[in-house]
Design a protein that fits this description.
The complex is a heterodimer.
Chain A: H1 12-25, E1 32-35, H2 37-48, E2 60-64, H3 91-98, E3 102-107, H4 141-148, E4 154-159, H5 165-171, E5 174-177, E6 197-202, H6 205-215, E7 240-244, H7 254-269, E8 273-277, H8 282-300, H9 319-330, H10 333-346, H11 352-375, E9 378-382, H12 398-403, H13 409-414, E10 418-425, E11 431-437, H14 443-456
Helix pairs in contact in A: 1-2, 4-5, 6-14, 8-10, 8-11
Chain B: H1 6-15, H2 22-39, H3 75-79, E1 85-86, E2 89-90
Antiparallel strand pairs in B: 1-2
Helix pairs in contact in B: 1-2
The chains are: A alpha/beta, B mainly alpha.
Chain lengths: 457, 96
């Protein structure tokens, strides 16, 4: 697969044209919602003229369509924002552009990033890069597929409960979710503010590290960002690594477990100490997640009401119809499910039983992680219980769809960094990733471990 | 297991400012019942005396100077996004 280095030193205009041609040649995957050709070519010309320089000069990339970008629409894959043109750019985009990177378009996602398959997009599902009958994963499905298809060397995604890691696993690319607060979320469509993170999908850990380094850092426009800490590392002494026992049960596809076992063997061969550990609260993590996150979604999505921006229902004649009809027409069924669940768990009489209970359980989950990270440098687990499932296979049963997130939500709830790297390929030819999880602010060490594993393979 | 009625869905929809069409109610009702049935397993977990977690950064009271910063965005650019505007105001149908 192509790497950032393959584009370096070449004409930026040629890079951009090539990426756009490839994007058009792969339309059947429905991975891209819009191309920003005009702005991309203008910026590429400026790079070629030496007006813009930097570590990513002339490197094309694609952003998930929930990052606000100039030069086109930002839809969040929803009808309500179908024609929305942002007046500003996300800090992450600004930082990449300042290094000369060129955004060529926007990737498909589950509307408002609600989903794990990219089937909840208002503009149709994205297809898996390795099997067009299967899902891309999600919600950053389009971002994973454009990287897997070599359209661009990296793409941006968001990860609230696994939305970068799981599609990375399903398409055979590297996916990085940082520590909560490492990357500014200014200018990115909010989903669940206490777990939303911004990360990258790339073909190598080395490339992912560079992009994360550039995007990281405190931002006065996002008060939840942590003081700067990210600096690339290398592994120069053996680590203690735990494999999560509860994540390796018989409920997990044998080929997925085989991928984890292979990675454990590689880690041992690299001199690391590997032990089985227990994260007993894992079985409750998904229930915690599907209380906390819908609660936050129900308030974050209140802003899509057809008043200040986005599409207003044309037949609405009263203010309450403007709200109610614009939202009903502009949101997808999964958005509505999550809003209603959020309203339920936050409503009078149920708050203590659901929301408060979940936030207490979240403390127990964090305590278990902290205890493990007192003894271990990193944890290993599958990314998802199965390889990419078939399109339509889980759409009739939301709970079944949610279960695909069970391995990825714990790190999200705890604010821990986690990444997915390719581990193996199923007999049917489907990529399977493995997940590395570290303590907060260990992003660089996790990436160093991923780089080390990459060198072994 | 908690039963969710069509009226419950309508009530939650009102709280959420969602004007659902009639054919959306029943599928949402059964989905909500299944999802709530799943999250209810949390009741098994003993959380007696545990403090809730609302955020994970340990950052507290992030202050800034009380100075106006429009982040480089002109107010007319924001107003232009509104579906309807008049005299530098966002316009909505009559409320009363």
């Amino acid at each position: 697969m192509v790497k950032i280095a393959d584009y370096s030193g070449k004409s930026a205009v040629a890079n951009v044209r090539e990426a756009i041609d490839k994007a058009r040649a792969h339309e059947e995957f429905n991975a891209i919602l819009s191309l920003t050709e005009e702005r991309a070519l203008e910026r590429a010309a400026a790079v070629d003229e030496g007006k813009i320089t930097g570590r990513l000069a002339g490197i094309p990339f694609i952003a998930k369509d929930n990052f606000l970008t100039l030069g086109g629409t930002t839809t969040a894959a929803s009808r309500i924002l179908e024609e929305f043109e942002a007046p500003l750019q996300a800090t992450a985009i600004e930082k990449l552009e300042a290094e000369g990177a060129i955004c060529i378009g926007k990737a498909n996602l589950d509307a408002f990033a609600h989903g794990g398959s990219t089937e909840n997009s208002a503009f149709g599902p994205t297809k898996n890069a390795h099997d067009k009958e299967r899902v891309a994963g999600g919600s950053s499905g389009g971002s994973a597929v454009v990287v897997a298809l070599d359209i661009v060397p990296f793409a941006l995604g968001t990860d609230t409960g696994g939305s970068i890691r799981q599609p990375a696993s399903f398409n055979g690319v590297v996916g990085v979710k940082p520590t909560y607060g490492m990357v500014s979320r200014y200018g990115v469509v909010a989903m669940a503010s206490s777990t939303d993170t911004i990360g990258v999908l790339a073909t190598t850990a080395t490339d992912a590290e560079l992009v994360m380094e550039i995007m990281s850092g405190q931002d006065t426009k996002d008060m939840t960002t942590l003081p700067d800490y990210f600096a690339p590392e290398t592994i120069d002494s053996p680590l203690k690594i735990g494999v999560i026992r509860e994540a390796m049960s018989d409920d997990v596809d044998p080929e997925v477990r085989a991928g984890v076992e292979k990675t454990l063997a590689d880690l041992k061969a690299a001199g690391h100490e590997v032990e089985e550990v227990s994260l007993s609260i894992l079985k409750y993590a998904l229930a915690i997640y599907y209380i906390v996150v819908p609660a936050e979604i129900s308030s974050n999505l209140a802003r899509y009401d057809g008043v200040r921006y986005g599409r207003r229902a044309s037949e609405a004649t009263t203010l309450s119809d403007v709200y109610g009809m614009s939202r009903d027409q502009g949101l997808m069924p999964e958005n509505k499910r999550r809003i209603l669940i959020g309203s339920y768990v936050l409503s009078s009489g149920f708050f203590d039983a659901y929301y408060l209970k979940a936030q207490k359980a979240r403390t127990l989950l964090i305590d278990e992680f902290d205890r493990l990270f007192g003894q271990y440098d990193a944890l290993v687990a599958p990314v998802a219980p199965t390889p990419a499932f078939r399109l339509g296979e889980n759409t009739a049963d939301p709970v079944k769809m949610y279960l695909a997130d069970i391995m990825t939500v714990p790190a999200s709830l705890a604010g821990m960094p986690a990444l997915s790297i390719p581990a193996t390929v199923s007999q049917g030819g489907l990529p399977i990733g493995v997940q590395l999880i570290g303590p907060r602010r260990s992003d660089a060490k996790l990436l160093a471990l991923a780089k080390q594993l990459e060198e072994k393979n | 297991m908690t039963q969710i009625s069509s009226d419950d869905v309508q009530y939650l929809a009102r709280l959420s400012n969602l004007e659902l069409s009639a054919d959306e109610i029943e599928p949402l009702r059964s989905d909500l019942e299944n999802i709530i049935g799943y999250i209810e397993q949390l009741k098994e977990l003993d959380t007696e005396g545990v403090e809730p977690t609302y955020q994970v950064t340990d950052l507290q009271n992030v202050w800034r100077e009380d100075e106006i910063d429009n982040y480089g965005i002109d107010h007319t650019a924001l107003l232009d996004l509104a579906p309807d505007a008049e005299a530098h105001q966002v316009k909505v149908p009559k409320v009363l």
